[in-house]
Each structure stands twice: as structure tokens, then as C-alpha cells.
């Protein structure tokens, strides 16, 4: 859990920096796919 939160924070701060520099914003597709996989797997819900 903590590693995922750390990665999410890093990716969001990178996007904030890109926004401030008028760079195009890009989502990390591997991160999005990973989160999608976790959220769609009901066996992980306790």
C-alpha cells in the first residue's frame, strides 16, 4: 500500500510540475493499468 501511495504522489507531483511549466500532461499508463487491475479484482477486498 505505502509503495503505491509513494508512487502515486511522485507521479502527481511530476504532473503538477509539468502543468506549471506548460508542458503537456501525460498519465503513466502502467500505473493506471495497475490501479485498474486492483480496483476490478473483487477478491482483493477484505
TrEMBL record:
Parts of the chain that traverse the membrane: none
Protein name (database record): Peptidase M1 alanyl aminopeptidase C-terminal domain-containing protein
Superkingdom, natural source: Eukaryota
Any one Pfam family match given in the protein's UniProt record, by short name: DUF3458_C
InterPro entries: Peptidase_M1_pepN_C, Peptidase_M1_pepN_C_sf
Domain Peptidase M1 alanyl aminopeptidase C-terminal: residue ranges: 1-46
Amino acid at each position: 500500500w505505502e509503495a503505491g501511495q509513494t508512487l502515486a504522489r511522485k507521479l502527481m507531483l511530476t504532473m503538477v510540475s509539468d502543468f506549471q511549466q506548460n508542458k503537456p500532461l501525460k498519465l503513466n499508463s502502467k500505473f493506471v493499468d495497475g490501479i485498474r487491475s486492483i480496483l476490478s479484482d473483487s477478491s482483493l477486498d477484505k
